[in-house]
Specification:
This protein has helices at 34-40, 62-72, 110-124, 149-162, 184-193, 207-213, 219-231, 250-263, 294-310, 327-334, 374-382, 396-411, 416-423, 427-430, 432-443, 464-469, and strands spanning 8-14, 26-32, 80-87, 89-90, 102-103, 133-141, 164-165, 172-177, 197-203, 236-243, 267-272, 314-317, 320-322, 338-340, 343-345, 350-355, 360-363, 366-370, 388-393, 413-415, 447-449, 453-456. The chain has 489 residues and is of the alpha/beta class. It has a domain at 53-393: pyruvate-formate lyase- activating enzyme, CATH 3.80.30. The strands form 6 sheets. Strands 3, 6, 7, 8, 9, 10, 11, 12, 13 and 16 form a 10-stranded mixed β-sheet that branches. A 3-stranded antiparallel β-sheet has the order 17-18-19. Strands 20-22-21 form a 3-stranded antiparallel β-sheet.
Length: 489
Amino acid sequence: MRAGSPKKLITVKITAAAGNDDSAMTTAAYPVDPQLLGRYDRPGPRYTSYPTAPQFHTRFGAAAFCENALRSNDEPIPRALSLYVHVPFCLSPCFYCACTKVITRDRKRAAPYVRRLLKEAALIAPKFDQDREVVQLHLGGGTPNFLDCAEIGSLVEGLGRLFTFANAPARDFSIELDPRSVTPSDIAELARIGFNRASLGVQDFDPRVQEAVNRVQSVAETLAILDACRRHGMRSVNVDLIYGLPCQTLDGFAQTLDVLTAARPERLAIYSYAHMPTAFKAQTRIHSEDLPAPHEKVLLLQLAIEKLSQAGYRYIGMDHFALPFDDLARAQVQGSLHRNFMGYTTHAQADLIGLGVSAISHVGYSYSQNQRELALWESTIDSGRLPTARGMQMSADDVLRADLIQQLMCQGQIDIATLERRYGIEFKTYFAVDLQRLSALSRDDLVVQSADRIEVTQAGRLLLRVVAACFDHYLHQPCSGLSQIRRAH
């Protein structure tokens, strides 16, 4: 750490990258420089993919997607499948949101959307061999529970007829829920349908913050849904929070964290709010003068780390925390943690199929994204065509860098020797320019380099995407930069 920097000890529990039991998980106290964190706190890719979505292009269309799907069946050992279903509808806008969404109170729009989802799935399913089991199904949004339980049941049943659902206990069927528009009896029905994981949006319980972002949500209704998930046998509940929101204070955020650590959801995601009103229209409703100052935002992050660590949560990576017995924490210890458009997952060896408006697929060595305009997606489906709007075929360099960035995001290190053997490269020569960019992070004690590996320090784990960005070939090209960064959904 640079001399003269103000330091504050924060106890963070970081899951070790080796071993196969909980003894590998240790608690480490380390100094954090608030000025350093603030300096690196800027908009950037979250690396749910590499290359990132801004690099997708319209030259890659439905024919290329189908070609990659068919080719993916040729693996000696069949790869499992993950299904992501995007439901764009929301009853009201949350001003911070950067997702692809349609604001409507017309519930009659749900049933036609489900029918088109199943029609899209029927176009795609024959491209994949039936012995490739679906080990993960995730409904995201928007607000998936804009659909009622009967519509969700019809969707899942229809997908089960088109694809082969795994029956293994380890399969993950998850759904994002808005606690304001779902009931405990709905949770019982969702569990009967087969969902065993849920993610609840909260952001902050402070009433002033909720008013400022147009998301008024009580503690009682949120905890009632969390409790219902447990009572009806869901294996894991995640709660989403955001720091850096308008009117947010340390005292208010502390109360939110205290409520949630007492409730003990298995996972929490603490996202950094990026204010980009020129890119996301809803954010124009947020007044910049109401946002915390940069140093105040860092203090909010520090507060979250301290409280979650004291409550027994382990820092997984990026913004994610999990209790030590959760599957994410175990997967990181075992080296099987993976990161994709659904965030962190335990299903590394699976091709991802995206269904619905704006959804992204990652099949073989390709990415593809559906049309982002609902009307265009609908008309394409109605004409019997796949709605692939853009994508890309990964180059050999893309595959190598994607592997490297996965190691960073999931394990906090780069195994140089393994990459050299796997790809036939001399690491220092191949990544000479990237290592020059990394040198500044080394001087700030965010990474430590040795002959056989690059390790992110404990303080650097808070800035994983900054480390990964050093190896992002596209981010450093002319005319590339933060203006290109957009959330995929």
